[in-house]
Design brief:
With 296 residues, this protein is α/β, with parallel strands linked by helices. It is 32% helix and 29% strand. Helix 3 (109-118) runs antiparallel to helix 4 (132-146).
């Protein structure tokens, strides 16, 4: 088993704008990781840095505990097809599929053929004339066909209808089951994609807001509703629950907090006549995006 990807003090700036700010992360090998957060939080930039499509301002990325570039074969173990991937203007789908295996020694021709058929990709069509959904399907074919040790999927569902997205999820699990590897996928369809994920990282304003196993992340978000006075008292008494978002209507307030909820805290909420319910992972990601919370 490989060591995975280590991100150490990673910072990326463009002029005066800081996209990523001193990130420290570990993506454990052999798992499917969800990279979550609002638009503009740095998800694509982070994947570009980890796959060496761009270079950091400060910090480093280790692949299996080695700096990128120490071994020229590292590039063959990475596959990152960007959401806005550029191709030669004259290339047809079949040209891309003919050339791609030269970059990946682990290329799986059988998977590629099956996916082209399932997504009904037209081999004779020039890539730049493909629809948004067809371009996404082509990116999925390349990413899964590569069988690269480290595979990055940047919002791979864009333009795909629900049936095609279901095909993608099914094929992702099939490919991963046949060859477990490290897959990092950014997505805004959080609850839809959650059954595929084992670990999640949430970015907010270029920083890590949360990194946790999926089951832990799904249990952390809480929505608490009731008297604003009682709710404020409960929050003062339970400082481990950081208020992420708040909505107020007259004397009533609804707050999203970061848990977990202890039995004592639950009983205190019940005594204060506060209603506590779990927040979906999608709701938690949205709440983190509207707060200043950073992972410890």
């Amino acid at each position: 088993m490989t060591a995975g990807i280590s991100v150490i003090g990673l910072t990326k700036t463009y002029g005066d704008h800081t996209v990523l700010d001193d990130l420290h992360l570990t993506f454990e090998a052999g798992k499917i990781h969800g990279l979550l957060g609002a638009n503009g939080t740095g998800k694509t930039t982070l994947m570009s840095l980890m796959s060496r499509h761009t270079f950091p301002t400060r910090g480093s990325v280790l692949l299996d505990d080695r700096e990128f570039g120490e071994d020229p074969r590292q590039a063959q173990r990475l596959c990152f097809i960007r959401e806005n991937q550029l191709y030669n203007d004259a290339f047809k789908v079949r040209d891309v599929l003919r050339i791609a295996p030269t970059f990946y020694p682990t290329w799986d021709a059988a998977t590629t053929t099956r996916l082209v058929d399932r997504f009904r990709l037209p081999p004779a069509t020039v890539v730049k004339k493909l629809s948004r959904g067809q371009r996404s399907a082509l990116a999925i074919v390349l990413a899964l066909g590569s069988r690269a040790d480290f595979t990055f999927l940047d919002e791979p569902y864009l333009g795909l209808d629900p049936g095609a997205r279901e095909t993608f999820y099914e094929e992702l699990i099939r490919s991963y089951g046949a060859q477990p590897r490290t897959i990092i996928m950014s997505t805004h369809l959080v609850d839809e994609a959650a059954p595929l994920l084992e670990e999640v990282v949430v970015l907010n304003q270029g920083r890590v807001a949360l990194q946790a196993p999926l089951d832990e992340a799904e249990s952390l978000g809480l929505t608490i509703n009731g008297s604003a006075v009682a709710l404020d008292g409960w929050l003062r008494d339970h400082t481990s629950h950081q208020e992420l978002t708040r909505r107020t209507l007259g004397p009533t307030a609804t707050v999203t907090t970061l848990g977990p909820l202890t039995e004592a805290a639950r009983q205190a909420a019940e005594t204060a006549r506060l209603r506590v319910s779990p927040t979906s992972l999608q709701g938690l990601v949205a709440a983190l995006g509207n707060s200043n919370h950073e992972a410890a």
